[in-house]
Write a structure and sequence with these properties.
Helix content: 40-55%
Number of domains: 1
CATH topology: Rossmann fold
Strand content: 5-15%
Oligomer: single chain
Number of strands: 6
Order of helices and strands: EHEHHEHHEHEHEHHHH
Strand order of the largest sheet: 3-2-4-1-5-6
Radius of gyration: 17 Å
Length: about 250
């Protein structure tokens, strides 16, 4: 089971959109996917029709509850977020292994049940995101193609290196994903060129174009694959899923 944390501390980067639609595109390809929504705002959960499932995920972090207790089954299995997660930082502050709780819980999952575990991280680098980075085997970083996003990416990669040194030496970046790309402007093209130059070998071939259907789909509690299967957004995330699957044959 590949454990992938989808992370970027900058809002508007396409993080949740990527988690949800990559999960749906992988499921369409016959892959078994479990998604953990670690963002207290619960946007990924909403896309799959779950508004708030009470204390389940909060209790995973603060009690003896297991991740299996919190799974909601579907085409994509999901562990929905809880607004109570916003208070989990205080609960974990005094925990002797506060950054590793999720990793310890994942160890008890039946890993043969899924091909992918995708973790949608909060748009901050607090203790929930650190839990995801400590638990993951790899990281997917969606990046908005705007020059200001490059600075945030540099800071994020510094944090990832610290996590590798202190918590998770085997953590690797599976890819940097250009998102919200508008090929009508030179700016998007220039930012993609800069990404490929500064982060050589880490930028994925897949590109997520700016697409109104991607913004509409969550309103109908659907992934882009289900909502608009022939849209550019759907085509782009299918290509991303294909590239992810191909990574396994290369490695």
């Amino acid at each position: 089971m590949r454990i992938v944390a989808v992370v970027n501390q900058k809002g508007g980067s396409g993080k949740t959109t990527t988690t949800v639609n990559l999960a749906a595109a992988l499921a369409e390809q016959g892959k078994r996917v479990l998604l953990i929504d670690l963002d207290p705002q619960g946007a990924a959960s909403l896309c799959f029709g779950f508004k708030d499932k009470g204390k389940a995920l909060y209790e995973v972090f603060t009690s003896q509850h297991t991740l299996s207790d919190a799974i909601c089954r579907g085409e994509v299995d999901i562990i929905p977020a809880s607004y109570l997660l916003a208070g989990v930082e205080k609960q974990l502050a005094t925990h002797p292994r506060g950054e590793s709780v999720l990793k310890e819980k994942i160890a008890f999952l039946e890993k043969d049940s899924w091909d992918y575990l995708l973790i949608d991280c909060p748009p901050t680098l607090g203790i929930l995101s650190l839990n995801a980075l400590a638990a993951a085997s790899e990281i997917l970083v969606p990046v908005e193609t705007h020059v200001m996003a490059l600075h945030g990416l540099v800071q994020l990669l510094k944090t990832i290196n610290i996590v590798k040194q202190k918590l998770n030496p085997s953590l690797k970046i599976s890819g940097i994903l250009p998102c919200r790309v508008d090929f009508r402007t030179n700016h998007s093209k220039q930012v993609i060129d800069q990404l490929k130059t500064r982060f050589e070998g880490q930028v994925l071939n897949s590109i997520i174009r700016e697409n109104i259907r991607l913004a509409e789909a969550p309103l109908y509690k659907k992934s882009i694959i289900e909502y608009a299967k022939d849209s550019n957004g759907s085509k782009d995330y299918r290509q991303l899923a294909k590239e992810f699957i191909e990574q396994e044959t290369i490695s």
